[in-house]
Amino acid sequence: MIGREKEQKELLRRYRGDQAEFIAVYGRRRVGKTFLIDETFRDKITFRHAGLSPVEGKKPGQTRDQLEQFYYSLLRYGMKKSHRPATWLEAFFMLETLLQEKDDGSRQVVFLDELPWLDTPRSGFITALEGFWNNWCCNRHNLMLIVCGSASSWILDKLINNHGGLYGRITHEIKLAPLKLRECEALFREKDIQLSRYDITQSYMILGGIPYYLGYFEPELSLAQNIDRLFFEKQAKLKDEYTRLFTSVFDSPKYMKRLVEWLAGRNKGYTRKEIVGSGLFSEGSKLTDALWALIAGDFIVRYVPFGASGHDVHYKLIDPFCIFWLRFLSVPKDTSSNFWQSIQESPRANAWNGLAFELVCFNHVDQIKAKLGISGIRTNESAWTLSSGENGGGQVDLLLDRADNVINACEIKFSAKPYAVNKEYYHLLLHRHELLRDSVPRRKTVLNTLISTFGLVYNEYSGIFSGVVTMDDLFA
Fold it and tell me: What is the pTM of this model?
């Protein structure tokens, strides 16, 4: 297993314990939640069941279908043939009976995968789960109940932050994040896929470090050929993944897609007032819940731009896969089977490269701080934009506002060679530096920092940067 050492160690530590455990694992679709549990507890799972996907099936999401499938899982794990449960209360009682029959005193692991899919409307699932844990599981010191779900907001609202009968019942939670660049490199190496770090970084810009997607790569193909195969060929494996991503996670997928597609319109995102002002979304609880669900699922981030008031909250799309799909696949007639190979040097691809590499850097702030020697210093990360005015506008891609009264103003550049500062850009940086200095407290020192793929060409203008972070540093 690549890159899940901390999570696996904690799961095994709790497995070796002597108390009842209720563990919730959540994270983005395809991030590897099921794989983590199956690999960690191989040959140790007493009962396993996965909910029926709302994407597939003749009658998706129906309670009767979910209960029937649960019954088949009970039979598969040794229950004697009986009648099919009519309610979730009855289904969990059948599970209790099966576990009691199988109990030999050793640890029993019960794994319920894609738990949110089981909670169909008016099914009474949460009430039954509450009874299962509170009336039976919690008193069995050898029981370990593990639940997974891609609908992160459901896991958070219904389990982790539950204010009813499941309040405080979760004994451990794991939010599984996408792989980092270093881990992506290890995954490719494990699969004998030879890609340069430049290409691995580009794969991250497209797929966001989601191991399931990376697993589709063919070793004999280049990065561009693999991307064409995954997205742009007739039977491309990920061509429909964007729609499936929303249908499998959200109750109102069309509404959520419309919101994501609106947020994709501006790199820095929009305020709630601007979202409502678009005329596409009404003010109210539906918008509140949608934004929360997108934040919980790591599709968007909620942030306050540097120097703005606490009321100037922005919502920004940060999911690389969604950004790539919306930029290049939302208009099907615009593509061909070798589309990505054909536009590598185009202005369209270059514009996307810059924005996508910024997201890579935001996802590797710890590595950036390590290179700058400030890992132990508390920082706030943000972007900064000054609207055009008397002195002209300006923006900085990434600001590291440090507790030691230093601000690293990071310029992020994606290029196929070391970056060279020319006279024009040098004076632009000077102007931007002066504007930023006027916007920060006088006790703060502002340092210009370059983050680029292959570093900096040292010339008469390169001294404008006091620190340089390279793509290799992001793999640390």
Answer: 0.93
